[in-house]
Amino acid sequence: MVTNDQRRRQLAREKFERQQKRRAEARRKARQRAVIAGAAAAVVAATLVGLVVGGVFDSGKKDNAADPAADPTASASPKASPAPAMAIDQKAKYTFALKTSAGEVKVEMDAAKTPETVNSFKALADKGFFDNTKCHRLTTSGIYVLQCGDPEGTGMGGPGYTIADENLDALGKPNEQGQVVYPAGTVAMANTGRPHSGGSQFFLVYKDSPLAPSYTPFGKIDAGGMKALEEVAKAGTADGGQDGAPKTPVTIEKGTVTRN
Prior knowledge:
27% of the residues lie in helices and 21% in strands. By secondary structure, it is of the alpha+beta class. It has one domain: Cyclophilin, CATH 2.40.100. Strand 4 and strand 5 form a beta hairpin. It starts with a helix and ends with a strand.
């Protein structure tokens, strides 16, 4: 016969076991959330590499590019060409027009906010630098961009010089993670991960993307260009991953910069 005291001890033991199970389940879920959060952070970190180019370039020659197996922000430090002399109206607005295999993309640029960047793109476009070049990288998680402007199509090429960062405070104050939102439709400079290391590579943002305010935002994509960009993004990457060559190949057939 079970006494009242024994019954009370049994009920207390069962209550304790239920509490332990609930606590164990809570700990398991907390660990799972931590793993998911860590994975998400890893995706963002990986896609950030897509905005990093291979160093200070010597007229796009591969033998002077940084070793891609080394630190992706490292510079090979070859002799560099000087940036083009200022030759634009720094109070004017310009259009960077890209005729691509995926459709027309027009980027509105304000020279008053990013004079060195606009001047560089005008000088390069006038030489046909962007003609018949590939947009080599698409990211589909963490950040959402299509990267272009490399004459080699590898992520390691550039014009042979670098330009200063500009307009970095345009997107507001960074959050606690040191990030700001680069809104959909923004065009910004890729760089080597170091200040003032932009060349010719740039990225087109097709969906709001959180990033450190380290990439010069210098243009806005028109509605037609956004539609073309979104179609490329919808198709994803060639290998189905979150970061790689776009499944829909994008070639800049002609790139021009004109004053509005």
